[in-house]
Amino acid sequence: MRARLVPPIGPLVLLLAAAGCDEPANAPTPPAPAFDAAPPRETFCGTRPKLFFCADFDEHALPTPFAELATPPAIEVLPVDDAAAPSAPRVVSFRARSGPAEAFLVTPPSAATSKWNALFFVRLAPHGGDVTLARVDAASGPTLAIVVSPGGAVRLVETDARGGDEVSHATTITLAPETWSSVRWDVRDDGAGSTVRLRFGDDMVLEGEPLRHRHAGIAPRLSIGLATPSAAQVSFDTVTFAGGETE
Fold this sequence. Notes:
Layout lengths: L10 H9 L33 E3 L12 E3 L4 E7 L8 E7 L4 E6 L8 E10 L6 E7 L5 E6 L4 E7 L7 E8 L6 E9 L4 E7 L2 E8 L10 E8 L3 E12 L4
Antiparallel strand pairs: 1-15, 2-5, 3-4, 4-15, 5-14, 6-11, 6-15, 7-8, 7-14, 8-9, 9-10, 11-12, 12-13
């Protein structure tokens, strides 16, 4: 019986095998990976999803994520690009062409609590009258407000739930105009009374200062903006607020 000879595999057959004979001749070429594509930019608030409230003005159109914004004709509230901002590129600017006038962005109220904290960055232009730039209040509780004099001196003003019985707490800090400053502000009620801490940058300007009006069992909300008797401008960046956290 004669053996059957298998013809040798030619070069063309080897070339087809290497190319993959089961692929259609007209199969599309997959796109090359985009190695030069920039990753999406991470925003301050986007990397801190557990905060009760956070606004860096880089993610949403106003007033989101704030609960409300009341803007009278005399005040413009605008998102502004600022490369020098703490959380660039965008901040919010309140500009009063005349006064008296006020406009505030207001956070949702937190759950009922006996302690709260706020953090934000602020830059104030030179102005001719006392400017209120932030306040914390509740539907049936007292109000605390940060007020800056024309010379830059800062004081904390508290009133009762009816807006009366005003108490002023002076500080030793003076805000430099057109300069970004960080503000850390918190209140705690320990059952015997309420106290406040207020820090501007590295300076603790009020440390455990007793308050006349109690902040116990309230649902606080933070307002940032401008209340002024005359023309003024203030800008904000990176605003956080939470009830029940003061550490």
